[in-house]
Amino acid sequence: MNNLILIGFMGCGKTSVGFQLAKRLNFNFCDTDQIIEEKVKDTINHIFEIKGEEYFRKLETETIKGLIGKLNNTVLSVGGGLPIQTGNERLIRELGCVVYLKTSKDTIMQRLSGDTTRPLLAGDQDKRIEKLLSFRAPIYEAAAHLIVTTDGRLIHDIIDEIINRT
Ligand code: S3P
């Protein structure tokens, strides 16, 4: 097994870093949100709207369980809430080397300003980010084999660090 699992808060760069990292390593790239959208043929936003968050979390857990034993030479980007659900932390660690893309609250706020694709941030976005991030950050840290900061850094620099340290 030779996989890298990228975790972190919405807007930390999992998809952009993951895609480029996979290209550099000549690995496959996949993303749990994309797998879910393809499976249920619906958007994450619409799934939240029609079926609610709990249903979406079940889909996430099913998805991660379904990947056990199936990935090789893959970079997997994982939705920001997936590692937070009880038991999922252990599952992602079974899949490969878990890399937490650690990003500050201010950077996330800047990057997600005006974003309408994240249903959990609807309303007072900055407050929601602050509350969710302070709850989740210690869980991401505990789940990670490796922590890489992203604030003020270029993608290729982040990728170099991941490659050098794994
Ligand atoms: C979520 C993060 C999103 C997506 C959904 C819920 C979360 O993925 O799975 O909107 O709970 O943090 P990204 O982290 O890729 O934005």
TrEMBL record:
<feature type="binding site">
    <location>
        <position position="15"/>
    </location>
    <ligand>
        <name>Mg(2+)</name>
    </ligand>
</feature>
<dbReference type="GO" id="GO:0009423">
    <property type="term" value="P:chorismate biosynthetic process"/>
</dbReference>
<feature type="binding site">
    <location>
        <position position="57"/>
    </location>
    <ligand>
        <name>substrate</name>
    </ligand>
</feature>
<dbReference type="InterPro" id="IPR031322">
    <property type="entry name" value="Shikimate/glucono_kinase"/>
</dbReference>
<comment type="pathway">
    <text>Metabolic intermediate biosynthesis; chorismate biosynthesis; chorismate from D-erythrose 4-phosphate and phosphoenolpyruvate: step 5/7.</text>
</comment>
<protein>
    <recommendedName>
        <fullName>Shikimate kinase</fullName>
        <ecNumber>2.7.1.71</ecNumber>
    </recommendedName>
</protein>
<dbReference type="Pfam" id="PF01202">
    <property type="entry name" value="SKI"/>
</dbReference>
<keyword id="KW-0418">Kinase</keyword>
<comment type="function">
    <text>Catalyzes the specific phosphorylation of the 3-hydroxyl group of shikimic acid using ATP as a cosubstrate.</text>
</comment>
<dbReference type="InterPro" id="IPR027417">
    <property type="entry name" value="P-loop_NTPase"/>
</dbReference>
<keyword id="KW-0808">Transferase</keyword>
<feature type="binding site">
    <location>
        <position position="118"/>
    </location>
    <ligand>
        <name>ATP</name>
    </ligand>
</feature>
<feature type="binding site">
    <location>
        <position position="153"/>
    </location>
    <ligand>
        <name>ATP</name>
    </ligand>
</feature>
<keyword id="KW-0028">Amino-acid biosynthesis</keyword>
<dbReference type="GO" id="GO:0000287">
    <property type="term" value="F:magnesium ion binding"/>
</dbReference>
<keyword id="KW-0547">Nucleotide-binding</keyword>
<keyword id="KW-0460">Magnesium</keyword>
<feature type="binding site">
    <location>
        <position position="80"/>
    </location>
    <ligand>
        <name>substrate</name>
    </ligand>
</feature>
<dbReference type="GO" id="GO:0004765">
    <property type="term" value="F:shikimate kinase activity"/>
</dbReference>
<dbReference type="GO" id="GO:0005524">
    <property type="term" value="F:ATP binding"/>
</dbReference>
<keyword id="KW-0067">ATP-binding</keyword>
<feature type="binding site">
    <location>
        <position position="136"/>
    </location>
    <ligand>
        <name>substrate</name>
    </ligand>
</feature>
<feature type="binding site">
    <location>
        <position position="33"/>
    </location>
    <ligand>
        <name>substrate</name>
    </ligand>
</feature>
<feature type="binding site">
    <location>
        <begin position="11"/>
        <end position="16"/>
    </location>
    <ligand>
        <name>ATP</name>
    </ligand>
</feature>
<dbReference type="InterPro" id="IPR000623">
    <property type="entry name" value="Shikimate_kinase/TSH1"/>
</dbReference>
<dbReference type="GO" id="GO:0009073">
    <property type="term" value="P:aromatic amino acid family biosynthetic process"/>
</dbReference>
<keyword id="KW-0963">Cytoplasm</keyword>
<comment type="similarity">
    <text>Belongs to the shikimate kinase family.</text>
</comment>
<dbReference type="GO" id="GO:0008652">
    <property type="term" value="P:amino acid biosynthetic process"/>
</dbReference>
<dbReference type="GO" id="GO:0005829">
    <property type="term" value="C:cytosol"/>
</dbReference>
<keyword id="KW-0057">Aromatic amino acid biosynthesis</keyword>
<comment type="subunit">
    <text>Monomer.</text>
</comment>
<keyword id="KW-0479">Metal-binding</keyword>
